[in-house]
Amino acid sequence: MPEQFIIKTSLGDITISLYDDTPLHRDNFAKLVGESYYDGIRFHRVIEGFMIQTGDPLSRHEEKRSLHGTGGPSTRIPAEIKHSNKKGTLAAARDNNPQRASSGSQFYINHADNGFLDGQYTVFGVVDAGMDIVEKIAAVKTDPNDNPLVPVVIESIVAVANS
């Protein structure tokens, strides 16, 4: 049974499941959740009809707004490219590197079918419930850098106990 988590945001909850066949990404995400790493982090890049991105610890600080999207652990996760960027899937963000290795913490939720990203990014999970919240986040007003004018914050992410 895939691992399941609830992303508790300032706009509501999103329940996700992580794929078993992307174990490096699944385990890294679970480790960060266990460390409360995502608590207080904002969605720093929101493009309606494309995706919503989060996971940058610098986004906790308004005074670092110009740096939002550049932070996170220095470690990269080797690519595990197996799934399509369909609406409602989670994928690891990454910088431009030939190995397509992923960011150590940043991820996005596809707000549309983004097949043009297939083969480029590791998709490692899917939204089980709360697409209405993804829709709410995608619709917020943003600045010219796609950063929400009113912060959308991850209050916490909690693991759902498997029964």
Description:
It contains 2 helices and 8 strands. An 8-stranded antiparallel sheet has the order 3-4-6-5-7-2-1-8. It starts with a strand and ends with a strand. 39% of the residues are buried. The chain has a single domain (3-65, 75-159), classed as Cyclophilin-like (Cyclophilin, Beta Barrel). By secondary structure, it is an alpha+beta fold. It has helices spanning 23-34, 131-138; strands at 3-9, 12-18, 43-47, 51-54, 89-92, 107-110, 123-129, 154-159.
Number of strands: 8
The CATH architecture would be: Beta Barrel
Q: What count of helical segments does DSSP give?
A: 2
Determine the strand fraction and express it as a percent band. Answer: 25-35%
**Main pleated-sheet profile:** 8 strands, antiparallel
Structural class: alpha+beta
Give the oligomeric state of the chains in this entry, treating copies of one chain as homo and distinct chains as hetero: single chain
CATH class: Mainly Beta
Query: Helix content range of the residues, please?
Result: 10-25%
Contiguous uncertain segments of 5+ residues: none
Strand order of the biggest β-sheet: 3-4-6-5-7-2-1-8
Do you know the CATH topology?
Cyclophilin
* SSE arrangement, N to C: EEHEEEEEHE
N-to-C span: 10 Å
Shape: globular
Q: What's the rounded overall pLDDT mean?
A: 95
Q: Supply the number of structural domains.
A: 1
CATH superfamily: Cyclophilin-like
What Rg do the Cα atoms give?
Answer: 14 Å
